[in-house]
Design goal:
The protein is 32% helix and 21% strand. The protein is α/β, with parallel strands linked by helices. The structure holds flavin-adenine dinucleotide.
Length: 358
């Protein structure tokens, strides 16, 4: 059957879900009765021929013209081929010690969401609660709810599936915390007025080199690792609990990385208002990349009120980050599975031919 005869649900299934490229962001869920989540999997239960194809359009793994999305988010701002558009890169952490103790690293994401809620920048946020043994998409509207979502769950929470629920409940300024695929989906959703995309008003992206399949949960159980309180991936996998810590080789879980993540060109959530990751140096701090004017305004105000603290990024560590991201993007551009990507030839050359000019 050619594409014009097919419904968009069938295209989503055939091009994205069946071959394993779905990142389980949840963007296609919630406004169509034929698309459902089953835990951390997405399924199309019936092909819909009458819809306008929003499910396919908002998918981060349907054909994606990054340069067009960038233009819409950043206008003429300068674009760094490795880091994306940015206004500032710094180390940052939550001002509150309590919040830092709850956060994955410096607690910057939680500090910024709680600040945005208190200031009325947003009236609700799509976040991920639960813990590393079960990620739970969560719609929060209070500081205490947001605090409950602190900590990284290294699986794929379909958080954006709650967007329509937030719209139906009357939220007008919705914040999103998400993996890079979810941030790309957010920018696509913002263009879809038929699903009230304009109500997404703050986008906080996480760094992400890959998320794990739900089979990882069984692995945790079988190896009695679900009894720990906290999980981190400094290099290998660290589990921490009251009875002591244990480290297992990353190789043991490599097989759980989603196929969809191997073709991800965006480890730093380049389309976010602000992006937050580890420093790979000091677990008490985060790397914070401020990208848009809206992000900068929020960060400056949060610094002024003491909700976050910042300090300069050591240049040698910035080079380490640059190299890691460069290598990742190069690998993805070489990968035959990255067909959804539409990257300008000049940018491709920058990564694929040493010393290129983007
Ligand atoms: C799957 C995954 C892979 C990651 N890989 C890297 C990496 O390779 N390098 C790196 O530097 N950082 C990575 N991160 C980001 C890092 O783990 C921290 O989330 C980030 O540094 C923010 O730290 P924080 O102390 O501000 O977090 P907190 O203040 O504790 O906030 C964490 C936030 O993350 C959200 N969250 C948790 N799990 C998920 C999920 N599965 N999907 C969407 N949102 C979620 C929660 O809603 C919460 O708001 C990854 C995160 C995830 C979820």
């Amino acid at each position: 059957m050619n594409n014009s005869e097919q419904g968009y649900g069938a295209r989503l299934k055939e091009e994205v879900i069946d071959p394993g490229f779905c990142s389980v962001c949840g963007a296609c869920v919630g406004f169509c009765p034929y698309i459902k989540t089953f835990g951390e999997r997405v399924g199309v239960i019936h092909d819909c021929k009458v819809c306008e194809g929003v499910c396919y359009r908002v998918c981060p793994r349907s054909p994606t013209q990054y340069h067009v999305l960038r233009q819409e988010v950043f206008g003429a701002s300068e674009h760094d081929p490795v880091f994306g558009a940015y206004k500032a890169i710094c180390f940052a952490r939550a001002g509150s010690e309590h919040l830092r103790s709850r956060g994955q690293y410096g607690g910057v994401v939680t500090a910024l969401v709680t600040f945005a809620l208190k200031q009325g920048i947003i009236d609700g946020a799509l976040m991920t609660g639960g813990n590393f043994t079960k990620a739970i998409p969560t719609l929060v509207s209070s500081v205490s709810d947001a605090l409950q979502c602190a900590g990284s769950k290294y699986t794929s929470s379909p958080t954006l599936g709650l967007f329509q629920e937030a719209v139906k409940e009357g939220y007008q300024k919705i914040g999103v915390v998400g993996r890079p695929c979810q941030i790309t989906a957010c920018r696509k959703i913002q263009k879809a007025s038929e699903i009230s995309g304009g109500k997404i008003s703050l986008v906080i992206g996480l760094f992400c080199m890959g998320s794990l399949l739900p089979e990882f949960y069984s692995f945790l159980k079988e190896n009695h690792l679900d009894r720990y309180e906290r999980m981190d991936i400094p290099k290998d996998i660290l589990f921490q609990g009251a009875g002591g810590d244990v480290m297992i080789p990353f190789e043991d879980v490599r097989r759980f990385i989603r196929l969809s993540c191997l073709s991800c060109y965006d480890p730093l959530s380049e389309l976010a208002d602000v992006s937050v990751g580890s420093t790979e140096h000091d677990p008490g701090w985060n790397t914070l990349i401020v990208r848009t004017a809206k992000g900068m305004d929020m960060v400056e105000k949060a610094r002024f009120t003491g909700d976050i603290e910042t300090k300069a990024y050591p240049p040698d560590l910035l080079n380490v980050l640059r190299e890691a991201v460069f290598n990742r993007k190069k690998r993805v551009l070489e990968c035959p599975e990255s067909m959804y990507l539409d990257v300008p030839p000049r940018e491709k050359d920058y990564f694929l031919t040493a010393g290129g000019d983007a």
